[in-house]
Known about the structure:
The complex is a heterodimer of chains A (220) and B (336). Chain A has 220 residues and is an alpha/beta fold. Helices cover 34% and strands 26% of the residues of chain A. In chain A, a hairpin with a 2-residue loop joins strand 9 (206-211) and strand 10. In chain A, helix 3 crosses helix 4 (111-124), helix 3 runs parallel beside helix 5 and helix 4 (111-124) crosses helix 5 (140-152). By secondary structure, chain B is α+β, with helices and mostly antiparallel strands. Chain B contains 10 helices and 4 strands, in the order ααβαβααβαβαααα. Chain B has a 4-stranded antiparallel beta sheet. The radius of gyration of chain B is 35 Å and the shape is elongated. Classes of the chains: A alpha/beta (220), B alpha+beta (336).
Amino acid sequence: MIRFDNVSMRYPSGYEALSRLSFELPRGEMAFLTGHSGAGKSTLLKLIMLMERSSQGQVFVDEQNLNRMPAAQIPFLRRKIGVVFQNHQLLFDRTVFDNVALPLQISGYEHDNIGRRVRAALDKVGLLKKEKLNPIVLSTGEQQRIGLARAIVNKPQLLLADEPTGNLDPELSAEVMGLFHQFNQVGVTVLVASHDLELISGMRHRCLTLDQGRLSNVRY
Amino acid sequence: MSATRRPARQGASSQQPPRQGARSQQPPRQARRRSYLRHHLQMARVSLRRLLITPLATLMTLAVIAIALSLPAVLYVGLQNVDQLSEHWQGSTQISLFLADQLSEEEGRDLAVQLQANSQIAQLNYLSKQQSLADFQQYGGFGRALDQLNYNPLPAVILVMPTPEYAQSESLLALSQQLLSIDGVDDALVDLAWVQRLQAMAEFGQRSVLVLGSLLALGVLLVVGNTIRLEIQHRREEILVVKLVGGTDGFVRRPFLYTGFWYGLGAGLLAWVLVQLSLWYLGSVVDRLIELYQSGFQLQGLGVGGSAVLLLLAMLLGSSGAWLAVLRHLKAIEPH
């Protein structure tokens, strides 16, 4: 599903965030991405989303070479990928329902279909009753779960998360990680960047460790 | 991925080769097309509602655009009227034949009767020396000066009105030459110069309206563009999120283009009202002028065609201004 082939990423400032990175995440697998802050975790995720382009090497997502992807195709790549951000990126000018519905409206789903799918996603993260609220009145943990609902509402083949438990207490963190595990169980490829080693070690998934832009350790 | 989650794919496009794995991201094409149209309607509504949330700010912007539009529109209407007026006057062009002094009144009337047979002449009017004097005293305001003279210096005059096809400047000159060659006609006077001057002025006016109109249209583009630029900056967060979850440029652009369109339409309507108000205000003065000149002239408004052009232009300028802003500023907002 994801393949990095000798990928380096150097920012215009000269800072090398990733260097000569190669790995593969097969379809249907789940893996963690760990490392200190600044080790390149976010950069790696951004390359998959084409928020950045690698300065060297090739990135493949779903057999497509991202280096050769024209800008006009980027939205369609992103529709295949669900992303959860640490700062959840919710819009506070609309309800929880409308936040979660956004990817479906963009993809062009019909009205009834949108309602059904949004409620299914909210149900999955346990926030079905809050659909009419503005996300600003919800707790951080709830906002994070709405971000998750938005990421999965489009039934993506690939789910990415950047420090999804960063602002959560241990109990909530375990709950959110449990949700990622569940999605993986139904066939979604999942890649979670996290530095919560304790939590990760409790889950039996592959773990890629980045150190100063290099892959230092791959553990199963 | 489980097959149960795959949506029905009837009518789905086959532009991409089938690949392994579920493609549950794409709804069927028909659904997408319906959804696309609905999104247009929805964005038209949403952008209008956003404008109405801040009525005062919106009204100010609309007023600026409307004033910029109504100024050339009023000038244009004014020019149309001058054009109409010059045609009106050209229609009443006449040749004054000044008869020789030695011709008696009877001979003069005979000449007038002879000329009546000329097919180029629609109508003529004989004024004897005495009538000329009376007219001159009445209209010219020279009554006193003429009273000082102990004789009548004015000649008898035949006023010739050519048929409309001979009223154009060239044939009119030819006709006057022909009439001048008649015995007993001392001079034939065609006063075309002022008609030509009026036409030249009208042309100058038209060019001025064009130049002024173009400049103001450019101003409207910039006003709309700048307003949309601020709106884009204001919605930066939303644009980033929409792009992150797979919104195309078209999707992101849409609400802003509709905002520009609404600005254009609103300002067009407001400009129309301003033009009508100006004409109504000027109308009473013009009526009085017309009365003084005893003319059959009538003040023309924008008319249906003019109003339609004004509205269309306004909508076009609004949408184009939004396009310019969107082209320039949306590119700069990319998630990083």
